[in-house]
Amino acid sequence: MKISAQEEYGLRCMIAIASSKKDNGLSIPEISKMERLSEPHVAKILSILRKTGYIKSIRGQGGGYILARSPEAILISDLLSSLGGRVFTPEFCDRFNGHTEECVHKGVCPINILWEKIQIAIDRALHGITLSDIIKGLNNAGDKNSNQKHLFMQNIANAQVKR
Amino acid sequence: MKISAQEEYGLRCMIAIASSKKDNGLSIPEISKMERLSEPHVAKILSILRKTGYIKSIRGQGGGYILARSPEAILISDLLSSLGGRVFTPEFCDRFNGHTEECVHKGVCPINILWEKIQIAIDRALHGITLSDIIKGLNNAGDKNSNQKHLFMQNIANAQVKR
DNA sequence: ATTAAAGTTTACTTTTTTGTACATTATAAT
DNA sequence: ATTATAATGTACAAAAAAGTAAACTTTAAT
User: Fold this and answer.
1) Which of A52-66, A70-84, B85-99 has the weakest average pLDDT?
2) Lookup: nucleotide whose C1' is closest to B42 CA
3) Which nucleotides of strand D lie within 7 A of protein CB?
4) What CATH number is attached to the domain comprising B60?
5) Cα dist from A159 to A76, A127, A150, B97, whole Å
6) Full-prediction pTM beyond 0.90?
7) For A161 and D13, how far is CA from C1' in angstroms?
8) Is pLDDT of A88 > 90?
9) What's the rounded Cα separation, in Å, for the pair A86 and A119?
10) Distance from CA of A15 to the nearest CA of B (A)
11) Which of A34, A67, A100 is the last residue of a domain?
12) Could you say which of A130, A156, B68, B112 has the lowest number of CB atoms within 10 Å?
């Protein structure tokens, strides 16, 4: 199980846009420079994020991209699902069925149950974490240069228990 | 995040081999029929499993594949890592770094920390589960036809708390 | 009105993953 | 020894994911 490029870069772009202070948002050239990705590549990623409703575009000169909703209303788990799918879905059994219409393991399927177990664990780990939490965590952790990772983790954990 | 074909089919083949009662193991043609996969495809999957040390082959007529170790000694988490990699590894930052040598987010990287959080959750969910647990769970759940899934889950959970 | 800077769309290329084909090697049974 | 059945290795083909290129549309500034 790996993270796909789309999940990784999609999330980075969301964080960049959410962190921006500008009113008319971040442009493709700006994000391209910040993240060191080619402009067409950024354009492609942002088009996915726009079509899935996470960002809005402002066209014309001086335009760019802004969040479609407040960062508090954007769950990381939703965002990741949109960018890279889920480990387990009810339709899972239609995916890997070799050379037959219906999966051979219909009925009690130990593997299916394993994937569901993993999915539940992931959902629990991400439960309640919003884009806002990531941004805040980043800001707080940036203050001092010691224990940054631990601080960030704490911030996230604190945000989660409140929900 | 999705399960790769290699993880899915690799695990299925391991379960098939581990469940077999035969002394000289299961052959490629047999697994091919059981799982409805082409013989070359099964051959490829088994070659990976053999090279990573999970199964041993018995060549020549009447040959096949058997587990390289007892199913109690095969952790599902290890098996899955071998087949499909891990969500988070210490070398993660070398993977997605756009057009530069070193990732732009060196230092406090919120995404990195998220992936690690997910990895920890997955490891915890699979902790202690062995191939043997899956086989036993399957056998027990097969007894009655009601509540099969719940029974299977229970079996796995019981196996885990003992460790 | 024209221009420049931005997003949008479509098509393409490259790379990785997935799956196939077939010739080769090994061994048990005859 | 020969044959049948099985694994092994190498090369190839197809599909999916990742990334690039370029023509087109929109809008603010001049």
Assistant:
1) B85-99
2) C19
3) 4-11, 17-22, 25-29
4) 1.10.10.10
5) 13, 10, 14, 29
6) yes
7) 52
8) yes
9) 7
10) 9
11) A67
12) B68
Residue where a domain terminates, one of B67, B95, B117 = B67
Q: What is the pLDDT of residues A105-158, one digit of tens each?
A: 887 788 999 999 999 999 999 999 999 999 987 777 666 555 777 888 888 888
Would you state the pLDDT for residue A84?
97
Exposed / middle / buried, residue A152 (Cβ in 10 Å: 0-12, 13-18, 19+): buried
- Is residue B145's pLDDT more than 60? no
Indicate whether A81 and A33 sit together in one domain: no
Is A87 within 8 Å of B3 when comparing Cβ atoms?
Answer: yes
Q: Are residues A59 and A135 in the same domain?
A: no
Assigned domain for B76 exists = no
Backbone angles phi, psi at A130, to 5 degrees: -110, 170
Tell me the pLDDT of chain B averaged across its residues.
91
- Counted residue by residue, chain B has a size of 163
Residues A81 and A48 both lie in one domain: no
